[in-house]
């Protein structure tokens, strides 16, 4: 009887969360999947069951180019955020001894998040523009004769803004993993004659893999679905899957946008599944 009461109490505890999960995640996803099979014309959405939205999407060479471009943004952003995030986390975890200073420096890393993403992106425009601060400085110093055109409204600007926006998503989980590393393991490696690089390669990096995987999931999933950064920082000269979906919604092509969203979701899930197979992140949960 006590067991039944405990079991019933467990159901009562999980019911609110399950309801929220169903209402705000499962039902919207099912709605998107259903709408992706509907038909449409210039003025109406027609409930139906057709495969033309998917056949047109997957059969178009433009779609594959857009996905390759999006994957390029995600890969480049991942490489740079991982490099910067790992370096910052390593410095905070192993070179800053005082807990107070760790907290202070970590809070400094969060300062960009005190403003919106849009403001942080727009702040790059006067810096990177043709007549911006960087080009003016380079010309005044005699390093270049003409303004560098690739700095703004280009793939470079998109990746730079993404790295600026999402590096903290890599710093936090890696720092958390590094703080859990038993310092006696590092001392043992040093006593065994391992150099600093060998200790990093054989002890710190393997034990930081769960944090690296979590940070990678955060960064890749956000960049894959992003469209504001691509629209603003490329000046409309580049495309991404998120921007394609946004344009389809703007044209009231909701079934086509839903089909694009489903394909994007499957692509991201495949990437996340691959990362989870490589690293067991349950140690961090």
Automatic annotation (TrEMBL):
<keyword id="KW-1003">Cell membrane</keyword>
<feature type="transmembrane region" description="Helical">
    <location>
        <begin position="99"/>
        <end position="115"/>
    </location>
</feature>
<dbReference type="InterPro" id="IPR035906">
    <property type="entry name" value="MetI-like_sf"/>
</dbReference>
<keyword id="KW-0813">Transport</keyword>
<dbReference type="GO" id="GO:0055085">
    <property type="term" value="P:transmembrane transport"/>
</dbReference>
<keyword id="KW-0472">Membrane</keyword>
<protein>
    <submittedName>
        <fullName>ABC transporter permease</fullName>
    </submittedName>
</protein>
<keyword id="KW-1133">Transmembrane helix</keyword>
<feature type="domain" description="ABC transmembrane type-1">
    <location>
        <begin position="67"/>
        <end position="275"/>
    </location>
</feature>
<comment type="similarity">
    <text>Belongs to the binding-protein-dependent transport system permease family. CysTW subfamily.</text>
</comment>
<feature type="transmembrane region" description="Helical">
    <location>
        <begin position="12"/>
        <end position="38"/>
    </location>
</feature>
<feature type="transmembrane region" description="Helical">
    <location>
        <begin position="254"/>
        <end position="279"/>
    </location>
</feature>
<feature type="transmembrane region" description="Helical">
    <location>
        <begin position="150"/>
        <end position="175"/>
    </location>
</feature>
<feature type="transmembrane region" description="Helical">
    <location>
        <begin position="75"/>
        <end position="93"/>
    </location>
</feature>
<feature type="transmembrane region" description="Helical">
    <location>
        <begin position="211"/>
        <end position="234"/>
    </location>
</feature>
<dbReference type="Pfam" id="PF00528">
    <property type="entry name" value="BPD_transp_1"/>
</dbReference>
<dbReference type="InterPro" id="IPR000515">
    <property type="entry name" value="MetI-like"/>
</dbReference>
<keyword id="KW-0812">Transmembrane</keyword>
<dbReference type="GO" id="GO:0005886">
    <property type="term" value="C:plasma membrane"/>
</dbReference>
